Sequence to fold (266 residues):
Amino acid sequence: MTTRRPFVGGNWKMNLTREGAVALARALAGDDPASEALEVALFPAFVHLDAVGATLALARSGLALGAQDCYPEPDGAFTGEVSIPMLGDLSVSAVLVGHSERRHIIGEPDDLVARKCRAVLDAGLTCVLCVGETLDERQAGLTDAVNERQARSALQGADLDDPSRLVVAYEPVWAIGTGRTATPEDAQEAHARLRAVLSDLYDADTAESVRIIYGGSVKPGNAAELFSRPGVDGGLIGGASLDARGFLDICAAARGARAAHGATTP
Ligand code: 13P
Fold:
């Protein structure tokens, strides 16, 4: 029996003005989807973290504030980068690590992703580690191999004393921003394989406690079916998180899935 609390993240990517980000945060906090039954984090652009954080604090919202990236060193000559202590100053409690847009557009390698993953966990923040295969890799039958390589390389040797502070986001690259979604069966299978990797890296209990969420064209219309799958513990939402009503509906789907089966299904 799992006690995993579902997790839904809104990855706003490089979108919104400061005013738009504050308005979206205010709208979400006004109908706060976060509760004991659901953890929800918002990931605005770095330059909007302060304003969004202040908005959430003013509303006494349970929504967590997250950053889309970080640099693993605490300070120094790293022009353009943002450290974890700087994020901590802004009350950031979660960080996305290894998002596919950083891996494939910016060219971030596995070893840098691993350093970030460890630094976030060591700092006591929640690490949302993103993994996923490209279309070419999928067509070559490499889906499981890529997911396993990315998960192992990021987590090898990483202490996980509190497994609730690791969230693994399975985001097939071909499904991101394309309107193509992995089938619920595909997501369930990839999640089960990732959980087996976690069990091998740590132990079965730890693997059972880590949330594994799905990302890639999740919308209000497909969220309930995806989240109803055993082992799919929520979602990381891009485009659909920019619309308050749609994002709230996706959060409701995650709560509904947990109510339906989450407390008793592996
Ligand atoms: P979309 O929901 O826009 O496909 O983006 C998914 C994603 O990359 C979340 O991190």
